[in-house]
Fold each of these.
Amino acid sequence: MATSFWHPQALMSQVQHEEIVIVRGEGSYLWTDDGTRLLDATAGLWYANIGHGDQRVADAVRAQMAELETFHSFGRFASKPNKDICDRIVSLAPLGPDAKVFLGSGGSDAIDSAAKLARRYFTATDRPQKRIIVSRENAYHGLHGFGTSLGWMEPNRIGYGDLDPAVLRASATDADDVEKVIMNAGPEFVAAFFAEPIIGAGGVIFPGEEYLHRVRDLCREHDILFVADEVICGFGRTGEWFASGKYNLDPDMITFAKGVTSGYLPLGGVIVAPKVTKPFWADGSQTWFKHGLTYSGHATCCAAAMANLDVIEQDGLVDRVATLEKPFAEAMQSLSDDPHVIDVRTPAGLLGAFQVETAEQGVKLEAEIMARGILCRKVGDGTSIAYSPPFIITEEEIDRMVDAAAKALKTL
């Protein structure tokens, strides 16, 4: 029977006849409705950091719902969970104790919020001409309005007509090109630069610290806001709480989602440095940021996030990622011996991908690896196969993931 559920990011003419229905999750594993067990080497969409089915999070959600499922946070209203999670995030983030957090329901919300805030900030500081936002080739910043404009994976942009004309594309790896784009546009007109410290969906691409520092310095020189999109990297994925701290990026804003709840409930947001908050928060200010979402600061989602961060801290999972970084990289790099593999990228922590020659090979590999009981993901232009397992993965399971890829490669 065909499904009535319209899958996101799916060719429905095909998918409606090929659904894979997940019915249970436990630890690093998932089960389908036909009883197949799969090792989730993707952590869902990069988010299941603590693994599936952790009862500590489920218990916290249940308790919060019994007390107060939620109430909106517009105007003067707040709930204890949304205040607590913002304080917790600020304590972990590398923006200092006076940073603030604007909450939404996920990464796409976070990107839209950050893009609007960047432009609103310059209007509030009497520079309304600074409206241009620069992002990078291969970037993925969600699929809301701003995210579609900021992302440069072409299939996500096709068919929507003209996107935001004040968004420009620069190189993901060449800082000279970034400077050229900014100078050609006129730095006096550029509001913000958006960058994933490690590009995720665009192919697991790390431009190097030198690139990131050079671009950050360009932003400082020309009073351009540096926005680090840490929707994937945040909350331990790179072996530290934030990639911005790992690489000493000193951004003006950090967008986050995914790992803040490990996907147990939807939550995301923007961590905002004091420089950007000042026009809005200073005593006596009459400047509003007229933006918000119904579920900004949803109490139960915030309780899930608090419980998730408790699990990460109590179980030492950020340190575990740092410990697993080397064996994971070594296992992934072993695939470089296969003649079909043209690149292996293991930039940090539990983030890695190997690249083959054609997208057709990518399709076949994804299916062959899954047939061996391992979930992976095609990313970028379809030639790269990404692994981003939960933080609770074992070295034995890492070897299984890579062995499945090695055997799949031999079928090409």
Amino acid sequence: MLENWFHLSENNTTMRREVVGGIVTFLTMSYIIFVQPVMLQTTGMDFGAVMTATCLSSALATFIMGVWANYPVALAPGMGHNAFFAFIVCGRLGISWQAALGALLISGLLFLLLGAYGIRSKVMNAIPDSLKFGIAVGIGLMIALTGFEWAGVVVDDPNTLVSIGVLTNPSVVISGLGLMTALILTCWRARGAILAGMAVSAMAALAMGLISYKGAFSMPPSLAPTFLALRPQDALALGVMQVIFVFFILDLFDTIGTLVGVAELGGFMRGGELPRARQAFMSDAIGTVSGAVLGTSTVTSYVESCAGIGEGARTGLASVVTSVLFLLALFFYPLVEMLGKAIEVQPGMQVYPIIAPALIMVGFMMMRGVKFIPWDEPTDSIPAFLTIMLIAFSFSITEGIAFGFMSYTLLKIFTGRWRDLNLFLLVISVIFAFRYFYLSI
């Protein structure tokens, strides 16, 4: 039955390779189970419910990707997406998490609609590569900054805004041990480096008496606090079209970029095209919609799937294995709760030193895109530079995208390279300009 469904022989693989590949992919990306509840609880969402929603939506989307698209690609709430959801939409803009989930649902439905009519690839192609990579790098810097703050390495300073923390502080020591573990394992090309780093940080925190072990297994937390709590009507009433747009663009970038990268590594491309691309994109969109309904941020394809492909996975059977492991993770809630515990380093200042190494490592991985920016062409590299800097320094993905689009359009026009522009870029740039100069938002 498995042979007929997944075509193992045709794809030159075996059941053992697929199982091992699925396990390796899960171990490589499972840090999201610990990170996601910590990040989203800053919005007021229930920690346990977010963990359950994360595991269920990841399992569902990954399973659909496996059995429908037959690709060894796993999905889960994306890093960067969760930062935008928690820190910018809910934090800076003050939008309730229920309305934010509503906006996410709308973007997911838009993703489904455009995928059904084949418009999605046209939108993606309309955005210059320099801006795509600039956005990814900028998000990586923002996530890394959050990691350094949660480690206690970077702290507030009234004169310079930020400064170095006390490096002998227990939180810095805990995060430092975990980060060094993850970095060394990464240099050794070891799988699960991020998860191992978090484990070392947890052991250090236990040894220092900053957290306590309360067991490893339990029944899954209730989903009730976040299930169907989304309010799309509130999102529309608040007029958060820019939020919906950014949710959509980020999901579009991640999905296409990840699928193309994974397909190249696995040898899935045929004549420059990805077979069953529609099924793969629709699986991703279904994941986003289900995540919003269950109560978590954008579910998208994970580049960590390359780890499983590196172990020989070539079919969706590996994704099915990863999906099952996400379901089993539901019963490890005590460990998730322990690793996500906030530690108070001084009155009014809480940090998350066990989670911090994961954020810093993700930031490192996202920085790789900087080498693909054409630095010798200033009309491309300057907008990418502004995008990176504004995302990181304003701590806003929206502002970075806005300045990137507007500067790209203006520089192309004033240097006589208007042929590099398209209608989509012009319209979006005008909308952002209108937002700044007329609406004063």
Amino acid sequence: MKKIATILVATALVAMTASAAMAASALRISQVYGGGGNSGALYNQDFVEIFNSSGSPVDISNWAVEYASSSATSSWGTTFTGGANYVVFPAGTVIQPCSYMLIGAAFGANTALPALPTPDATLGSNMSGTAGKVGLFNTVNVAVACGSEVGLIDKVSYGTANCAEGGAGTGGLSNSTAALRNLGGMTDTDNNGADFTVGAPAPRNSASPANPTCLATPTLRSTWGSLKSIYR
């Protein structure tokens, strides 16, 4: 009986660890907008949106969102000085199941344009409105080249930017368009070109309604990228 109890406890611990890993791997960048505050923009501020596609809350304490210009070769942590090109989430930061987090970036010249929903975090970067790249990491990368990232969770290259996931970036953006991950963030085939549609920005923050199509337990391979191989 004691041996059986030990096995059951061990099995439960493995299941809990796997569940936590799967939930963390379900995070992805769901929207990118770099035209904020420019002529013809729909909002006065750039932003990046993150989505938790799992049915469990995910703690992202000390994780980072980083921006880099379209052609930067040491892609991450070198585009701007003073660390303005990345934000590190403080201890206790959690994204709820099937919910979003909004990271506000730089304001454009026209601050009279509509404001974003209240951002959950702030990224100091002035993002390009047409071509650039954004990464989500579970640690900070500084002066790291594309392909050598540490703790990479997800990355999105838009327009003509290098370092695209799957080798193809999203379509080119403008002051009035954003890169929107399909199905409100659910689609993830590890190909930016296939996973994103260019359209009007629709920023969501942690107070926005949860994604109504979000599945607690994925049933389709197409809902997870190869980086989330634990599901396969």
